[in-house]
Amino acid sequence: MNGGDPDRLFEGITLMKSGKVPNLIFTGAEMPWEKSNRTEGTVLIDYAADYGIPYDHIFVSSLVANTADEAVAVKKMTLGNNIILVTSAFHMPRAQMLFKKEGFKVVPHIG
Fold first, then answer.
1. I need a surface site. Which of 33, 48, 58, 95 has the fewest CB within 10 A?
2. Is residue 90 in a domain?
3. Which burial class, exposed, middle or buried, applies to 91 when counting CB atoms under 10 A from its CB (0-12, 13-18, 19+)?
4. Rounded distance, CA 17 to CA 103, Å?
5. DSSP, residue by residue, the chain
6. 76 pLDDT above the threshold of 80
7. Is residue 71 part of a domain?
8. For residue 20, what are the CA distances in angstroms to 28, 38, 76?
9. What does the pLDDT look like over 1-46, one tens digit per residue?
10. Distance of alpha carbon 108 from alpha carbon 95, whole angstroms
């Protein structure tokens, strides 16, 4: 998983397969540990597809540098205001606050 947290990927896949979400959205974070032109989100697309998620239900935000940027970038994608936010327990309070600030109705999901 190139140093990322695979639990979040697998939680998203589980939510998709259980019918709880219609789409997966990955953010376009740079991967500082790897010299690549691809963002973390563009790498995760292929992993999700390998686990049976259709490509037309997987989206990647624009390039982002931090969680605040992620919330703004996802908002610009206009896929709706209701989200299940998957992140670590440690990161959830801050991430939830930032996504709510952008107008999302957030359901937290620890992954």
1. 33
2. no
3. middle
4. 26
5. -TTS-HHHHHHHHHHHHTTS-S-EEEEEE--TTS--SS-HHHHHHHHHHHTT--GGGEEEEEEESSHHHHHHHHHHT-S-SEEEEEE-TTTHHHHHHHHHHTT-EEEEEE-
6. yes
7. yes
8. 23, 28, 22
9. 334 568 889 999 999 999 999 999 998 887 666 667 788 888 899 9
10. 9
Indicate the number of domains in the chain.
1
Could you tell me whether strands 105-110 and 58-64 are parallel, antiparallel, or unpaired per DSSP bridges? unpaired
Here the tokens at position 42 are 């563009």
Instruction: Assess if residue 96 is contained within a domain.
Output: no
**What is the total residue count of the chain?**
111
Its domain, for residue 67, covers 6-79
pTM of the model: 0.86
State both tokens at 10. Answer: 């697998």
Q: Which two tokens stand for residue 24?
A: 């997966």
